[in-house]
Structures are given as C-alpha cells and as structure tokens.
C-alpha cells in the first residue's frame, strides 16, 4: 500500500441525471468504506441531496458544494489532500480533473490523481487523442477527424461519406454519439456538440450503426495484473445508446475467438494507459466480415460496472478502491462474506443470465421524442436474473413495466405499419414490439435484417411466445404452470392468462410441488463460494437459500429508477436498512435496480434480485417468515394485498399520494414537522417555489429555500397553527403543512401533505438528524418520546439552504419548460451562499 | 424432445430433456465452468469417454462454426446443460449443436439443475454416470457394470503420422489426443509440423530431425501409458527442445521422476489465477485436468516449478534444469479460454531458435 | 523511421529464457555473480537476478560495471574530464566466481573486451559468460555471447535502440534508420 496517501478527496457525481443515477453514489459508498478500512481519511464533494456517500463521511470531511473545478480547487487549497479520486463521479468528475490538470492546480498542490494517470485523463475524453493511442496499441480504429467549425464539419463529413457520427470533445454530459444521415442533421448535431464540448470541438467519424455493441468490464492493479469481470452484450445494435439498449451478461452470441480478442484488446489498452481500478471498454463488432472497433474507454465506475458487479457478485467498487491505493490484486482482502480469500483474483464465471432493460421517462414527459437513438433517454433500468435467457428477459420485462398486478401491456393495438416503423425506428418498450412482431408471424431472418439484432434473441422470444401459448391454452394445468414459471412468467401473468386470481395459481403451485429454488449470485459458478448473500429465484431442483433468522425484516425496493422521487427513494431505503440493522434486525432486500445503493451487499444480510411483485414477494415471505415487511408507499396494490393476507406490513418510504388534505393547489410556504404519539417537532419552514419563481400548483413546487420569507411573528403564527392543527387532526410521521402569505398578514393555511421523499433527504442534510431513521424507529415502535422532546432544532435559524430539482429536458432535446415534481430526475442542494444559477 | 435421465453411480437420477443423439452412453461425469466455447469443449479429446456438465447455462446459442473444432470426430459421451438453443449460424445455416451431436452420436440432456449437480459433484468427486431413457434398476445395473476403458489415448490419437507442411521450424507433435488449438498456434508461427502417433519412439522422432518436439494434450491417465513413452521423452529432452502440454506435461513430469496423482474431482475451467513464478505475473488459462503433479514428488535437482494455480495450489508448469524442456498443465492455446499464456508458443519458437 | 522488433512481452520472454539458460548452463546458481554494463545492462542484469531469486529463492549478487575507462576507442583525456563517467559498483569479490556479464546490445565486441579487462582488474573469475538482449552482428573482435535474447541482423546504417521501463518508461527494441 502507498503510505504516502492519508487523505483523499473524492469527487462526487452531482445530481442524478440521464446518464447516471444512483450507481455512482453506490460505488462511492463502497470506496469510502474500503478507504476507511485502510485508515485513510476520505473527503467528499457533492451536492446531491440523495447521496448516501455523504452520510458515510464525517461532517468535517463533507463538502456540500456543486462539483466544479473552482470549488474543488478551493477544497484542495484548504485541505491539502494527498490524492484526488475521479472514478466515482462520472464524466463530470473527469472533466473537473481535466480542468484542474490543465490549469496546474493538481501539480501545484502536489495532488496525485488515483486510478487514471494524468495523460490518460486527457486522452480518454478526446476521441481524436484516444484514436491515436489505440492506433499505437494496434487496435483497429474508425476513420475520423476533429472539427472546430461548421464548414470543416461539412467538408469532413462529405469526404467520409454519410451516415457519419458526431461526438463532442470533452463533453460536460454523457452524450456519446449523434448519428447524422444528411448535411442538415450534421449541422444541427455539430452545433449542439460544440455547445456541449469544453473546447467547442467535435469529432466526425464513419458510422458503424448496426454493429453489435459489446462492453467489457475489467480491473487492473498497479503491477499490471488484470481480471476480466464481465462481458456485457447489447441486444440492440450500435445506433441505440447502450444506456437505452437491452443488455445481457454474460455475452451469449460471441464466439470464444471473438471474445478473447476483445479481452486481449481491453487489457492492452489498460496497460497502455496504466489504469488502476475498474475499466469499462466499449466495442463495436461487425460479424461479416469479422471486424471490431473500440468505441469508448471509461476507466471509472458507471452503469456498466455496476451491472457487472450486480450480475457476478464480484465487489468491483470495493476492490477498485484498494487498487487505487496501489494494493495488488493478490493482496486485496474482502469483507468476510467473501470467504474464499482470493475472490478478488477470480475471473467471474456465471451460471446464470442477467438481462437489463431500460426505463424511459416518456409517461412523465409526454412531449419528448420517444425514438431511441444515439443520445441516451432512459432514466433507469431493471434487471432480471434467470437460468435461461427466457427467464431473465421475462423477469426484466416484468420489473420494467411497473404493472401493479404483474401483467404485461399488450401491443396488439399497433397497426402493421406502426410495427414496421417501430422495428426500423425503435422506441421505448422495444422488447414488447419485438414480441408482437413475432406473434404476427414475422420471420427471424426478416426481423434480424430490420433490427440488426442477433437471430438468437428472436429464437428466444419466439420460445417465450410458444410457452405463453401453451400456458394459456392449458388453464389450471400444473404442467403448464411448471413450464410457465420455469421460463420466468410471473404468477400475476399466469393468473391473467387463466382468468383466475393469483391465489388459485399459487395453490396449484403448492399442491404440485412447483416451488421456487433460490440460487446464489457469486463469481465461481458454484465451485468456490458456497453461501453468498445475493440470490435470485428459479424453479429447479435445489434451493440454496435458508431462512435467515427469526427476526428478519423484509424491505421491498422501488425497482428501477423513474422520474419523480426515485433517486431519493433509494437513498431512503439505504438509510432504512442501516437503522434496521442498528435496531437488531436481520434484513432482506428485494430489488431489481442494478444501480441501487440499497442493493449493495454490505447493507443487508441477504439480497434477492427478483421482480418486486406479489407472487415473488410471497415466495420470499414463505422462505424468510419476516417479522415485518416494509413496502414502498407507491405500491398501493401490494400493500393492500399483503395486508389482506395478514402480513405485518409497514409503508416506508411513505406514501406520497394519499393522506393529503388540500384546500387549494397553491402554496408558498411549507412547514415540515415530525409527529409522534406525544410530540410535534417542527423541523423547517421554507419557501416553496417552482423552478422559475412562484408556483401556481403544488406539482410545480420543485424548489425549497430556507429560511422562509416570513417575519418572526409570522413564523410564530405558523408554529402555533401547526400545533393546533395537528392536535385536532391526528397524524404521525413526517408531514408538511402548506401556507400562503401576503405581506405581513398572518399566513393562510392551505393544506397538509406527507413530506416528500426528496424533502426528507434535504431535511436530513439541513438538520444533521436522520429523519429516515426516525421514521423507521417509529414504524418499529421504538420511538423514545423523551429523546424526541429533547431534540434541539433551531426552527428560527437564519442559515441559508436550498434544494432545487433538476430536469432531463436538455438530454431529451426539449426546449426549456417548467419542470414538475413528477419530472424531477435529481436535485441539488446548497448551503450558505447559494449556488448561482448554472449558465446552461 | 423426449424426457431422458442423467443417472449417477451414487444412485441419483436427474430427469431432463434429451437433445442431440438418442444414444445411451456411460462415462465419467465432469463439469466445466468456462463461459464460452461449448463447441471447442465438446470436441476436445480430453473429454473422451466423459459426460460434460456445463455451468454456463446457455448452450448452443451460436451454432457450430468451422473455426471452433478442437477435433473433427469428437468422442465425448454427453453434454449436460440447463438450456440449449437450436440455432444454425454458419453460411449454410445448416449446422446447429443439436444436429452436430446427432451426427457424432453424442447425446445431450437439457433442463438439468446443473448448478446443483456441480455442487453435488464436489461432494462425490468424479463419478460415473449414464444418459438413459429410463432411470430404472436395469439402467443403474448397466451403469455399475460398465468398465470404462483406460486406453483412451490409443482410441483418440492418430494411428498414422501426418504432415502439416509449412516453411518455418520443423516441429514434431506427439499426438496423445491433441486439440487443434495446438496445431493452430504452430501454423500461425509457420511451423512445418509432423504429427506422430502417441507410441512413436525416440528414433521415429530423431529420424525427422526436428527443431523441437511438442507433447500434446490428451485424455485419461498418464499412468496408463507404457513406460516406453517415458523412455522416448527422456531420450528426446536431452537432445531436442521440448514443449509439453496437458497430458504431455504429466508425462514429462513422470519421465523426470515426479509422481502424478488423480484429483478427487477433475478441474475444468478458465477462472483460476495462475502465478508465473519467474515474474510473479498472474495469468488466466483454461485448465482441464483429472491428474496433477504431486508437488512433494518433484525432484528439484531436475525440475523447476514454473506455474502454480493460486486457488488449489496445483503445479501448472515445470521446466527441466539441464535441458531446454518445459511443460504446462493448462492449455496455452485457449480454444476456449484466455490467450494470456499463448506466448508460450513464442517461447518455444525462441528456444528452438537458439539451438542450431 | 523506427521499427519495433522486440516488444515488451518479447523482451520479458527473452529475459526469462536467458534466465533458464543460465541455470541450465551453470547447473544451478552456485557461485554465480551478475555484472550489468552501464547503463541498460544494469537493469537487465537486475531483472535476471530477480528472476533467479523467484525461481531459486536465493539472491545472486548484482554489480554495475562502467567500462568507459577501459575502452580502446575513446581518448583517455576525454574520459578524465567527463563527469558522466563513474566508477563501477561491485561490492563483492569476483575471484573464483562464475560471472555473467550482461549488456543490452552486442555489436563490435569492444565494450565486452573492455568489460573483461575491468573484471580482470578486480580479480580472477572462474569463468565469464556473456548474456545480451540483442546480438546485431558486425563483430570487430573474436567475441560471442553465450546467451542471446534476439539475433537482429542489421546493417551498419541502422541504429538499435533498446528501451527499458526503469529509465525509458517502456520496454522495447527498435531499429532506427539513420
């Protein structure tokens, strides 16, 4: 280990947005944990209110500031860290480090960059420079040229020949590539690209649309030892951003020779750049003639590395953290749950299949163009794990549809011409369209030609349809149930096909011994690691998972990320899990979001990656016999069904919709309170605003600012009213009372609603009290009323604080519009001097 | 397809769905944890008389390809998988795994809880099994009564010499059941290869005046081969640069006074880290072995240990102290598996280059 | 124009093979000492010693030889005034030892002759063997290497450039047209 390093500044990823959600923060938490274990003091800069990582560093090491070069520079000059870590902050962190390297701040302050050597930082984000390095390594590269003006762009594109791809150099956001079929498209793309590039430059390159996209995730230590963690195969071809593509791991349609060539290439590139830690390498493959290109090298944590970690059970971020400190892979010691001591050196071998399906925000942003292309539009994803491709695909689809009853939407309304159009110009929920096309009799060869998707996947989808047909035509038949479950159909889907209720389906299962068998998610394919903590279900012979304890709490995750309160919900869940442990419970989490911090193995005793649907939940309940089940507030159907079956259910994160009582839909002041049996604790009074000023509806309130614009007298009136109101309208938990003000008139009460999840996260940061844990204690009946009485909260504090929602409009290529709460993709917070509005 | 069974010597029976040939077969049941390359695996002659359990659950998804044969006439006794896809992707769209297995009379069985089976095999060790239509007493009686041959090498190695002409070094390959990956690597390096049968004598080899000799991979136990093979090795290693792989490595160890023992459980996979002792580098390579060199038996005045598996501590490479002769237990040609150690073939070329 | 003729992997392999050949030739490492000729020979010598240590778990002494003073093709006055010329660092006796002399490139043979003179001034070794990474031919003296990484027949118009990661940041041998 490098003893010279005592203090490391970690660059956070900033607010969640399209391109990165909770995976960066989840990785950051693991890195912090590993650093602390090595006796290192981690400092963290981030302004993401939903960051769990911020909860895991001491307040003095926490810098809640926007992730900008200026802010990072100030921290460096004040704190003098020995090193800086850019690998858990996405492209934002990379671009900040680039700037600090260019202006000499890192060198002047003797700060070492971990993971990515200085020259490599400059190369990886610049397609031109990357190409010249790749050429040196002997990797085939795509014809390309850098341009700085529109004229140049037009000339270069003409000489390469359309279609061409435009990539901004050193972009500020995760843009990837823009495909242009014509000069008009080129001009628009280059104009946009210039505005995204820190250097007002773009690269124009030959199009490889239609190639197969494959990604490899590897780790490397300073000695050059490398381990290939996983190969990720995009089911959709190049032309659809990998973040918008269905992805499968392990790769299923690559030959050994192809795969090994990619492995060798990735390793050679890692050696050339001298990366340490984790690297995610992107390739484009042409099958006939066999040929491949490297399209992107990302030597940091991202959604690909988190998928690889989730799929293999290999703790990538934790291992990488040790490698940043110049430990060798042979020396890395993992937490006790990895009882095979050389786990960090095992090349993961999987005996299951994982499919990731993206989640798009189009329901909440209906005016966005729903076509999928080279610019990412999805805001989250879910995975399905199975022992067959069919099972993994079906589980992933079931989780991605957010259907309360676990049924799949029908695409039978689409006309034939709509189907053709969507096959050629893909849109969200593409997999359902592919299934529908097969159902209508399109042939595999035809579909392969139209979509450039490997025929293997159509064979699989056809099989899913065949199984469906068989199940449907044999109602109540145990064999049909067995086949359906074996290939991943949910109880809800089967109940719908048979026109019966789910209990009927389940009782046939029980009566005929068609029972779930849980299989471990671990990197040795059953050879070395015997009792992992991660499981998924299938319907086979051996069940490996046993009841954890007689005091287990089952926590249901929210599934894939959507717009609205989702990023905060994952933060909420992670904090819940910490409190449950503290309260002495063993915990089981069920979730399907590979990026979720709540799913990392260090937070819970058992992780089950299965659809969070009634049938699957009951399976877990039958196994674990939990003493309490926490259901997220948005899952009304689940809550109802579980309660109906007399299970001990608590609703957390709290329901955001029910229990609001409103006189009007307009408010300017909010007062958040924590209410117990005997106490009412005022937490914060704040101004409620829209992104552009006064909010005319509650849905527009996406900005909170404290202190509230009320005079001391008005504040007293608010507090008096709140006490009075809550005395007569009994509620417990976190509530927000809403008011309007007019000059120095007493505030007018307009209603009450549950405190929003985003707000709770904000309140945690403002008060330094973890209200999530309070809510958990309350749900468990562990609230100490005496302690509550002694809570010291200065409601009259004049400390300035602000939380402001962020929106995905820019990435969705929409003009600026007024964002609604349901459209929030993330948020940013600031204290003291408020961040100026970013000039965008 | 019809229901079939995998039955094991310990009395257990696994129902599944048959694919490939409908034959009833018996063999040793071994498992492989490689994630790719089912075609290379099933055509590798080290699996002669064996039933292979695949931990990777999706098999058949790329059909059968002309460049993935490790032998033309595979002689494995079966494939046990969780899920098989019947797809053809070659230019004629005419050869799926299912069809290929039918042509070579190899049965497959799918729908097996292979993860369970693999965990089970770790308890039982390598065990005999059969793929049968009915798992009745008769089937078990047959299984118990079947005595597997110990003449595997003689059954799969070429009976007659054949050449693979080229312009480079003159290399003699002794075929104990060689995998094509070895020939592919020698071809890539322009070697003028002559493949000799496993029972070739030292004189047969010397007559061809080779620059180097390669002892190939192959099935079964090195202890079942006659002493004459070891004599041949001892004579050759003193005179001609020698490179030995797999079974060849085990024979090289035996010829130089070491002992080889049978593993409780055969190991087949590509995920174990292997330490290159001379440089301390970690590499990954496909291992496929039922036998292992006993480390306590290695005569350190004659042999140097060059590679060690960091998971099970097994010796993975040896080198003679006095002669340019070296061996590896793993498969440096990949096929399937990582290429991390493919430059052992370059080392062989360079060794030949320094001995005129 | 530079052409890489030995890449990093091949250089590693060459040193590995030379190491094994040294063991073969000397029936082990008893009485062995290694002397690297300045500058790159020293690093190559160290790498060979590291490899021997890995294999035999015993340390072989490594010394540094600066042969400038012994060369017959450089004016002695020039040497006296050149601050770059240092003394050799050999803190062990060579008498009765088997010396492995290590250099990066074997060319005219004059360096090796000078090295042998330098060694003889230090004592009387039992034997001297020569290991070189590259033998490029064009000998002017009757000298040959016992262990050769790679023979690179070259014309006298070409230059052979050896890079080692310890000082050059990477390992390679290149042919450069003059």
UniProtKB/TrEMBL annotation, chain A:
GO molecular function: ATP binding; carbamoyl-phosphate synthase (ammonia) activity; carbamoyl-phosphate synthase (glutamine-hydrolyzing) activity; metal ion binding
Keywords: ATP-binding, Ligase, Manganese, Metal-binding, Nucleotide-binding, Pyrimidine biosynthesis
SMART domains: CPSase_L_D3
Listed GO biological process terms: glutamine metabolic process; pyrimidine nucleotide biosynthetic process
Catalytic activity: hydrogencarbonate + NH4(+) + 2 ATP = carbamoyl phosphate + 2 ADP + phosphate + 2 H(+)
Gene Ontology CC terms: cytoplasm
Pfam families reported in the protein's UniProt record: CPSase_L_D1, CPSase_L_D2, CPSase_L_D3
Signal peptide per UniProt: none
Residue ranges constituting the ATP-grasp domain according to the UniProt record: 131-325
PROSITE patterns: ATP_GRASP
Family statement: Belongs to the CarB family.
Protein name: Carbamoyl phosphate synthase
Organism listed in the record: Secundilactobacillus folii
Lineage of source species: Bacteria, Bacillati, Bacillota, Bacilli, Lactobacillales
From TrEMBL, chain B:
Recorded catalytic activity of this chain's protein: hydrogencarbonate + L-glutamine + 2 ATP + H2O = carbamoyl phosphate + L-glutamate + 2 ADP + phosphate + 2 H(+); L-glutamine + H2O = L-glutamate + NH4(+)
EC number(s) stated in the UniProt entry for this protein: 6.3.5.5
Keyword ATP-binding: yes
Pfam family of the protein (one): GATase
Active site: 333
Region (CPSase): 1-169
Pathway: Pyrimidine metabolism; UMP biosynthesis via de novo pathway; (S)-dihydroorotate from bicarbonate: step 1/3; Amino-acid biosynthesis; L-arginine biosynthesis; carbamoyl phosphate from bicarbonate: step 1/1
Biological process, per Gene Ontology: 'de novo' pyrimidine nucleobase biosynthetic process; 'de novo' UMP biosynthetic process; glutamine metabolic process; L-arginine biosynthetic process
Gene Ontology terms for molecular function: ATP binding; carbamoyl-phosphate synthase (glutamine-hydrolyzing) activity
Start and end residues of each Carbamoyl-phosphate synthase small subunit N-terminal domain: 2-132
Main enzyme class: ligase
Keywords tagged on the record: Amino-acid biosynthesis, Arginine biosynthesis, ATP-binding, Glutamine amidotransferase, Ligase, Nucleotide-binding, Pyrimidine biosynthesis
UniProt key word Amino-acid biosynthesis: yes
Binding-site positions, L-glutamine: 218, 220, 247, 291
Functional description taken from the UniProt entry: Small subunit of the glutamine-dependent carbamoyl phosphate synthetase (CPSase). CPSase catalyzes the formation of carbamoyl phosphate from the ammonia moiety of glutamine, carbonate, and phosphate donated by ATP, constituting the first step of 2 biosynthetic pathways, one leading to arginine and/or urea and the other to pyrimidine nucleotides. The small subunit (glutamine amidotransferase) binds and cleaves glutamine to supply the large subunit with the substrate ammonia.
Record text on subunit structure and interactions: Composed of two chains; the small (or glutamine) chain promotes the hydrolysis of glutamine to ammonia, which is used by the large (or ammonia) chain to synthesize carbamoyl phosphate. Tetramer of heterodimers (alpha,beta)4.
Protein family membership: Belongs to the CarA family.
Protein name, per record: Carbamoyl phosphate synthase small chain
Name of the gene this protein is made from: carA
UniProtKB/TrEMBL annotation, chain C:
Record-linked Pfam families: Pribosyltran (PF00156)
Alphabetized InterPro entries for the sequence: PRTase-like, PRTase_dom, PyrR, PyrR_bifunctional
One record GO biological process: DNA-templated transcription termination
Reactions the enzyme catalyzes: UMP + diphosphate = 5-phospho-alpha-D-ribose 1-diphosphate + uracil
Lineage top rank: taxon: Bacteria
Function statement: Also displays a weak uracil phosphoribosyltransferase activity which is not physiologically significant.
Protein's name in the database: Bifunctional protein PyrR
UniProt organism field: Secundilactobacillus folii
Gene: pyrR
């Amino acid at each position: 280990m490098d003893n010279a390093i005592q203090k490391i500044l970690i660059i956070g990823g900033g607010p969640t947005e399209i391109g990165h959600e909770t995976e960066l923060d989840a990785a950051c938490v693991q890195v912090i944990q590993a650093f602390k274990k090595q006796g290192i003091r981690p400092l963290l800069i981030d302004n993401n209110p939903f960051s769990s990582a911020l909860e895991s560093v001491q307040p003095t090491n926490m810098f809640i500031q926007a992730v900008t070069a200026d802010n990072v520079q100030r921290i460096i000059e004040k704190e003098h860290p020995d090193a800086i870590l850019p690998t858990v902050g996405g492209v934002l962190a990379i671009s900040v480090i680039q700037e600090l390297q260019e202006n000499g701040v890192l060198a002047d302050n003797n700060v070492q960059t971990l993971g990515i050597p200085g020259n490599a930082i400059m190369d990886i984000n610049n397609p031109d420079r990357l190409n010249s390095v790749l050429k040196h390594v002997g990797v085939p590269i795509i014809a390309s040229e850098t341009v700085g003006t529109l004229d140049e762009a037009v000339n270069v594109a003409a000489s390469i020949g359309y279609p061409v791809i435009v990539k901004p150099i050193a972009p500020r956001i995760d843009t990837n590539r823009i495909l242009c079929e014509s000069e008009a498209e080129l001009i628009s793309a280059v104009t946009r690209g210039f505005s995204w590039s820190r250097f007002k430059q773009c690269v124009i390159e030959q199009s490889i649309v239609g190639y197969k996209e494959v990604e490899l995730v590897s780790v490397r230590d300073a000695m050059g030892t490398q381990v290939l963690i996983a190969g990720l195969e995009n089911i959709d071809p190049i032309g659809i951003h990998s973040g918008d593509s269905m992805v499968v791991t392990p790769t299923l349609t690559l030959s050994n020779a192809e795969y090994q060539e990619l492995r060798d290439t990735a390793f050679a590139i890692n050696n050339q750049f001298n990366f340490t830690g984790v690297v995610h390498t992107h390739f484009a493959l042409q099958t006939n003639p066999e040929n491949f290109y490297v399209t992107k090298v990302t030597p940091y944590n991202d959604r690909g590395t988190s998928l690889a970690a989730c799929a293999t059970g290999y703790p990538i971020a934790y291992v990488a953290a040790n490698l940043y400190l110049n430990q060798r892979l042979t020396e890395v010691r993992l937490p006790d749950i990895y009882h095979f001591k050389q786990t960090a050196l095992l090349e993961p071998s999987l005996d299951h299949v994982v499919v990731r399906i993206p989640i798009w925000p189009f329901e909440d942003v209906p005016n966005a163009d729903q076509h999928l292309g080279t610019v990412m539009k999805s805001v989250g994803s879910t995975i399905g794990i199975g022992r067959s491709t069919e099972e993994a695909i079906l589980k992933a689809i079931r989780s991605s549809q957010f259907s309360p009853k676990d049924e799949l939407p029908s695409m039978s309304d689409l006309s034939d011409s709509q189907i053709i159009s969507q096959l050629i110009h893909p849109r969200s929920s593409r997999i359902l369209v592919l299934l529908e096309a097969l159902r209508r009799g399109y042939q595999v060869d035809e579909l392969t030609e139209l979509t450039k998707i490997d025929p293997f996947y159509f064979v699989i989808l056809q099989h899913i349809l065949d199984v469906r047909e068989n199940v449907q035509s044999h109602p109540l038949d145990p064999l049909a149930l067995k086949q359906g479950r074996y290939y991943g159909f949910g109880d809800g889907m089967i109940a719908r096909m048979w026109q019966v209720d789910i209990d009927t389906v389940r009782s046939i299962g029980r009566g005929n011994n068609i029972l779930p068998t849980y299989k471990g998610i671990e990197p040795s394919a059953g050879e070395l690691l015997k009792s992992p903590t991660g499981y998924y279900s299938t319907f086979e012979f051996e069940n490996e998972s046993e009841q954890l304890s007689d005091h287990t709490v089952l926590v249901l995750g929210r599934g894939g990320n959507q717009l609205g309160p989702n990023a905060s919900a994952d933060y909420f869940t992670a904090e819940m899990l910490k409190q449950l442990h503290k309260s002495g419970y063993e915990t089981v989490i069920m979730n399907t979001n590979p990026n979720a911090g709540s799913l990392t193995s260090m937070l819970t005793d058992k992780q089950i990656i299965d659809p969070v649907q009634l049938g699957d939940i009951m399976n877990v309940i039958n196994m674990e016999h939990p003493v309490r089940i926490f259901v997220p507030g948005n899952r009304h159907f689940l809550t109802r069904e579980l309660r109906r079956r007399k299970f001990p259910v608590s609703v957390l994160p709290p329901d955001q919709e029910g229990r609001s009582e409103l006189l009007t839909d307009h408010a300017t002041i909010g007062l958040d309170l924590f209410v117990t049996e005997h106490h009412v604790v005022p937490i914060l009074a704040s101004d409620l605003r829209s992104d552009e000023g006064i909010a005319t509806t509650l849905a527009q309130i996406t900005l909170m600012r404290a202190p509230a614009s009320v005079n001391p007298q008005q504040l007293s009136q608010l507090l008096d009213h709140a006490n009075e109101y809550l005395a007569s309208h009994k509620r417990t938990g976190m509530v927000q009372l809403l008011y309007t003000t007019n000059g120095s008139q007493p505030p007018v009460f307009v209603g009450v609603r549950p405190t929003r999840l985003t707000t709770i996260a904000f309140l945690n940061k403002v008060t330094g009290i973890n209200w999530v844990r309070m809510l958990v204690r309350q749900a468990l009946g562990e609230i100490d009323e005496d302690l509550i009485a002694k809570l010291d909260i200065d409601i009259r504090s004049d400390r300035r604080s602000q939380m402001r929602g962020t929106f995905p409009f820019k990435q969705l290529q929409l003009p600026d519009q007024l964002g609604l709460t349901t459209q929030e993709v993330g948020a940013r917070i600031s204290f003291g001097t408020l961040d100026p509005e970013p000039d965008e | 397809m019809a229901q079939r069974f995998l039955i094991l010597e310990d009395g257990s029976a696994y129902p599944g769905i048959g694919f490939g040939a409908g034959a009833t077969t018996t063999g040793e049941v071994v498992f492989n944890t490689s994630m790719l390359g089912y075609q290379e695996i099933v055509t590798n002659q080290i699996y002669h008389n064996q039933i292979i359990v695949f931990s990777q659950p999706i098999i058949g998804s790329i059909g059968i390809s002309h460049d993935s044969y490790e032998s033309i006439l595979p002689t494995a006794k079966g494939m046990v998988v969780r899920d098989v896809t019947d797809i053809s992707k070659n230019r004629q769209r005419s050869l799926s795994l299912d069809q290929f297995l039918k042509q070579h009379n190899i049965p497959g069985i799918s729908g097996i809880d292979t993860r369970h089976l693999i965990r089970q095999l770790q308890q039982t060790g390598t065990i005999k099994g059969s793929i049968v239509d009915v798992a009745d007493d008769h089937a078990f009686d047959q299984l118990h009564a079947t005595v597997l041959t110990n003449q595997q090498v003689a059954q799969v190695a070429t009976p007659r010499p054949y050449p693979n002409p080229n312009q480079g070094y003159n290399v003699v390959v002794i075929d104990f059941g060689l995998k094509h990956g070895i020939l592919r690597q020698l071809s890539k390096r322009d070697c003028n290869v002559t493949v000799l049968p496993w029972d070739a004598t030292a004189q047969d080899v010397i007559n061809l005046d080779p620059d180097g000799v390669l002892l190939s991979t192959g099935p079964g136990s090195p202890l079942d081969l006659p002493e004459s093979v070891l004599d041949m090795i001892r004579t050759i290693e003193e005179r001609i640069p020698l490179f030995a792989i797999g079974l060849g490595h085990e024979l090289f160890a035996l010829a130089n006074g070491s002992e080889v023992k049978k593993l409780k459980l055969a190991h087949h996979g590509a995920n174990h880290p292997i330490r290159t002792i001379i440089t301390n580098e970690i590499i990954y390579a496909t291992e496929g072995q039922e036998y292992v060199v006993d480390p306590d038996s290695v005569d350190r005045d004659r042999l140097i240990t060059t590679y060690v598996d960091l998971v099970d501590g097994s010796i993975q490479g040896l080198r003679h102290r006095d002669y340019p002769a070296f061996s590896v237990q793993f498969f440096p040609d990949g096929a399937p598996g990582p290429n991390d150690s493919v430059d052992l073939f370059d080392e062989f070329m360079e060794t030949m280059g320094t001995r005129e | 124009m530079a052409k890489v003729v030995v890449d990093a992997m091949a250089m590693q392999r060459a040193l590995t093979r030379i190491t094994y050949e040294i063991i073969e030739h000397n029936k082990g490492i008893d009485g062995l000492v290694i002397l690297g000729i300045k500058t790159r020979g020293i690093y190559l010598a160290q790498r060979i010693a590291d490899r021997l240590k890995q294999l035999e778990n015993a340390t072989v002494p490594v010394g540094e030889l600066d042969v400038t003073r012994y060369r017959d093709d450089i004016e002695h006055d020039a040497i006296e005034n050149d601050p770059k010329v240092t003394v050799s660092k050999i803190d062990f006796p060579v008498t009765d030892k088997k010396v492995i002399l290590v250099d990066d490139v074997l060319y005219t043979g004059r360096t090796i002759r000078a090295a042998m003179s330098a060694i003889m001034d230090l004592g009387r070794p039992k034997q001297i063997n020569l290991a070189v990474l590259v033998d490029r031919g064009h000998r002017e003296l009757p000298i040959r290497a016992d262990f050769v990484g790679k023979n690179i027949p070259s014309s006298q118009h070409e230059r052979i450039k050896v890079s080692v990661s310890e000082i050059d940041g990477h390992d390679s041998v290149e042919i450069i047209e003059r």
